[in-house]
From TrEMBL:
Protein name: Phosphate transport system permease protein PstA
Compartmental location: Cell membrane
Organism, scientific name: Frankia torreyi
Annotated function: Part of the binding-protein-dependent transport system for phosphate; probably responsible for the translocation of the substrate across the membrane.
Keyword list, A-Z: Cell membrane, Membrane, Phosphate transport, Transmembrane, Transmembrane helix, Transport
Length: 355
């Protein structure tokens, strides 16, 4: 018995008929689209009344996103075009966020690096007149380090204990009230914290201006950041670790101290450094509570003291160019100090990560 075979087109010889793999944009296509967007934006800048560099950057980013989506729709289809649109939007937003940071760093380094020398770190402003070129930030560095350390000593243990209570013990109305006030403190303007310490500590208790008064104001600003960051990190600790400790008969307080806190320690340290970075550059609360001085005062509990933000504020407001140069140099030093603190925190958190 013979079987008849029906002849037809050879599907294997024509893989495009299967559409198993659609067309994709070449790797150079996004770069070409970006170059075209930049060229069009420059032409608009040259041929139209638009004279703002920020508008040109935003216009180039918008043209890049639109052009990439259109080209991807034509070549790859709607499904991949939507995926490429979301990806392009994320990368564009990242670049737009990085550009101001890079611009600030370049501006501060270019304007402040030339004033940095050994004398700038080892001398204060004592005896420096309005028209004198010398002077340094030795007294301001001492004030900033002491005030931030005191604020950390006050805020970090208190904030960590509050976070532990909210996560491990907090139930009912008291926990909700504490969370509400922490949220209120999170959005508290820094000048309000300075006014509170000024009215209570400096005026009502007649303690006078001092570095410790500034540390109290900075601690008020640090507490909500420490509480929220530590709370979120403690919530990420698996409940199985707690249950394992309870199954072995370990008390709850010891389980928290030996298991929960060490597990969340890297994130807690990162949150603490974020709080330090926030308060290290605050000017308003320091201006109201520390008041500032040109002398070297290494005792934060007695007399007026200076700080780097207060030094930058006072020098930037003077008309002389060398005073403005000192302000830029002090700003660069403040950025370096914060970066070093964050690097140390990262190394510390990495070494204490549970294996």
């Amino acid at each position: 018995m013979s079987t008849a075979t029906v002849s037809g087109p050879d599907i294997d010889s024509d893989p495009d008929r299967l559409r198993l793999r659609g067309q994709t944009l070449p790797r150079w296509a996004p770069l070409a689209v970006a170059a075209g967007a930049v060229v069009v934006s420059l032409l608009i800048y040259l041929l139209t009344p638009v004279d703002s560099e920020i508008q040109i950057v935003l216009m180039a980013a918008l043209l890049f996103v639109i052009a990439t989506t259109v080209v991807s729709t034509v070549v790859e289809g709607g499904r991949r075009a939507r995926d490429r649109f979301a990806t392009t939007l994320v990368y564009t937003a990242f670049l737009l966020a990085v550009i101001p940071l890079v611009a600030v760093l370049v501006s501060v380094i270019s304007k402040g690096a030339g004033r940095l020398d050994a004398g700038f770190f080892t001398h204060s402003m004592n005896g420096i007149g309005a028209r004198d070129v010398g002077g340094g930030i030795y007294h301001a560095i001492i004030g900033t380090v002491e005030q931030v350390l005191l604020a950390s000593v006050l805020a970090v243990p208190f904030g960590l204990l509050v976070a532990i209570y909210l996560v491990e013990y907090g139930r009912g109305r008291i926990s909700r009230v504490i969370s509400f006030f922490v949220d209120v403190l999170t959005g508290l303007p820094s000048i309000i914290a300075g006014l509170f310490i000024l009215a209570f500590w400096v005026l009502a208790l007649d303690q006078g201006f001092s570095g410790f008064a500034g540390a109290l104001a900075l601690a008020v600003l640090m507490i909500p950041t420490v509480v929220r960051s530590a709370e979120e990190m403690l919530k990420l600790v698996p409940n199985e670790l707690r249950e394992a400790g309870y199954a072995l008969g370990v008390p709850q307080w010891r389980t928290i101290l030996r298991v929960v806190v060490p597990t969340a320690l890297p994130g807690i340290v990162t949150g603490v450094m974020l709080a330090v970075a926030r308060v290290a550059g605050e000017t308003a609360p320091v201006l109201l509570t520390v008041f500032g001085t040109n002398l070297i005062n290494s005792n934060p509990f007695s007399g007026e003291q200076s700080s780097l933000p207060l030094y930058i504020y006072s020098q930037a407001g003077q008309p002389q160019q060398f005073a403005v140069d000192r302000a830029w140099a002090a700003a660069l030093v403040l950025i370096i100090i914060i970066m070093v603190l964050n690097l140390v925190a990262r190394l510390f958190a990495g070494r204490n990560r549970l294996k």
